[in-house]
Specification:
alpha+beta, 8-stranded mixed sheet
Length: 272
């Protein structure tokens, strides 16, 4: 019988890491965070090696022997299958974030709907989300399996542990596999709450001072995150009110502006 558990931490044998990636794959597949052969999972084994899920296999059906070991440039070192076609995205995160030892990529439906709509999960709606992740931005679209995807992530990786991938899905990272998986689960849960509150017709956001208290509480809860506080992230009741009271701006092209000016001049001449 398969051991369906993942323990915190990274001080484990390669065999333990292999078993736990397969467990995470079953969890992700069982929660409908992926369909068919979608998604990928990886662990940093040491300073030179990455253990990753293979391409073209259901994450719910992987066995430890299916996994692939590569170096930090993506060259295969061991394994009978080929590494995930999106390994470059994982390698970018590992190269920019020495604190990260696990990466999960999946397509949880509600969060992915936000990604496909270009809507970040950046509102201060849930105290737990503010503590755990701050806010979740949307990376510009990049073709899956190409350098474009890595390039779209690069500006965000340093400051966020969870990122929506435009028209694609979600990527999360963490100090260990359990943390990375939990962050994927948190993203989808928050996406559902955000959607349902929109459908109910009212979202009551936390204030700026509420958010400051929550960020201070991170240390008390033992939360370690890359999330930083930047203007407008997360959106609070204060910033939302400020935006609502700002003068409405419109944009027009040069040709449209010229046509408006000409029309105004015609009306002016006709009234003289």
């Amino acid at each position: 019988m398969l051991d369906d558990s993942i323990s915190p931490g990274t001080m484990k044998s390669e065999d333990e890491h292999r078993r736990e990636i397969c467990t995470a794959g079953r969890w992700i597949h069982g929660r409908a965070f992926v369909a068919s052969t979608d998604g990928n999972i990886s662990i940093r084994l040491d300073s030179r090696r990455i253990l990753t899920s293979p391409t073209n296999i259901s994450k719910g059906l992987m066995s430890p022997d299916d996994l692939v070991v590569t170096d930090l440039k993506g060259r295969k070192l061991a394994g009978r299958r080929e590494a995930s076609s999106e390994l470059a995205m994982h390698l970018l995160i590992y190269s920019r974030r020495p604190d990260v030892h696990a990466v999960c990529h999946a397509h949880p439906p509600i969060a992915t709907a936000h990604a496909a709509s270009g809507i970040p999960l950046n509102k201060a709606l849930l105290s737990e989300l503010v503590i755990a992740l701050g806010c979740i931005p949307v990376a510009q679209y990049g073709t899956p399996g190409t350098q474009e995807l890595s390039d779209s992530l690069e500006p965000l990786v340093q400051n966020f542990d969870a990122i929506l991938l435009a028209n694609h899905g979600v990527v999360t990272c963490g100090a260990d596999l359990l943390t990375s998986f939990y962050r994927m689960e948190t993203v989808e849960h928050f996406a559902q709450v955000s959607l349902f509150s929109e459908l109910l017709g009212k979202q009551v956001l936390l204030s700026g001072s509420d958010v400051e208290k929550l960020l201070t509480a991170r240390a008390r809860y033992g939360t370690v995150t890359a999330a930083t506080v930047t203007p407008g992230c997360p959106v609070t009741s204060d910033s939302a009110a400020s935006a609502a009271s700002a003068p409405e701006r419109i944009s027009v092209t040069r040709d449209e502006l010229q046509a408006l000016i000409e029309e105004a001049l015609k009306k002016d001449r006709a009234q003289r």
